[in-house]
Design brief:
It is a single chain. This protein has 336 residues and is α+β, with helices and mostly antiparallel strands. Helix content is 41%, strand content 20%. It contains eleven helices and nine strands. Strands 1-4-5-9-8-7-6 form a seven-stranded mixed sheet, sandwiched between helices. β7 and β8 form a beta hairpin. α1 packs antiparallel against α2, α5 packs across α10 and α7 crosses α9. It is elongated, with a radius of gyration of 39 Å. The structure holds 3,4-dihydroxyphenylalanine. 3,4-dihydroxyphenylalanine binds next to β8 and β9.
Length: 336
Amino acid sequence: MKQQLDTIQVNALAAIAGAEDERSLEEVRITFLGKKGSLTTASAGMKDLPKEEKPAMGQALNEVRQAIQASLEQKRTELQAARDAASVEGLDMTLEGRDLARGGLHPLTEIKEKAVSILRRMGFALAEGPEIETEFHCFDALNTPQDHPARNEKDTFYFDSGKLLRTHTSSVQIRTMEAAKPPVRIIAPGSAYRRDEIDATHLSVFHQLEGLYVDENVTLGDLKGTLEYFLKAMFGDSTEVRFRPHFFPFTEPSFEIDVKLQAKGEEPKWIEVAGCGMVDPAVFSAVSTSRGDQVFESMTGFAFGMGLDRLAMIQWGIKDIRLLIENDVRFLSQFG
Ligand code: DAH
């Protein structure tokens, strides 16, 4: 049997040395070490040996197996190295690579995510509503009478059904209160639509972020503190914020908010960034009628709304709002 093993080893090593690629090397392995391979067949002869010869023969068998395995392994490494070398032959590894264009966030997305993340940290949850709205949610429930200019066919996109493209995100205030119980603390970023003449500061599709805070005993102090904190987080700690009395149908009292900002090389000036106010009781009454209960009837709250396109223009000194929708990479590649 010893002789038989020696022959197997010699044949195996010769076959390995002669293998030209990894596939034929694998065939060699099967021929000698496989289930029906010659070494396996030879080792079956062990059981017929006299007991005292078994240990020595077992050891010889192991040595042959190990020698074949080591040789297989070495040959495999050599073949792989040869294949790798062949695959890069003729390639100039010192040539420069090709640059991949890197994407970035659109300035509008960036400003929206910044505003949303600040407000979420302050406890506001995201809310949404349909962009095709009813007159009730867009106007009536927001205390905006039939003869208000915003309801004019010239200013608003109406469908034949009487529905319309929402003119502001304030409709989400109503949608939210119809479906939730107080306290309500939501923000709703989204698109709004107006039949505006398109120019450097107007688009017929633009973006707003609405906020609504409703609870018992909400005060004007809460509104001021919340929005001042928010605007400082948006524009910088030292930003001055001012509330100017204004009128909105759905808030009373109402304000426009200005922040004092300094563009590069210019004097600081007050820039209007948002509208806000204490929720008008007429809004709570409309919500009560729509819900058919009184849970919002004794509530107080504040609301605010701001133009995201405007915020982006202020943040980056963008002079023409149309740049935000023209998809010109020369403009967009400056962001993100
Ligand atoms: N909806 C107003 C607009 O589109 C913005 C606004 C003003 C929203 C005051 C509010 C608010 O929630 O309280 O011009």
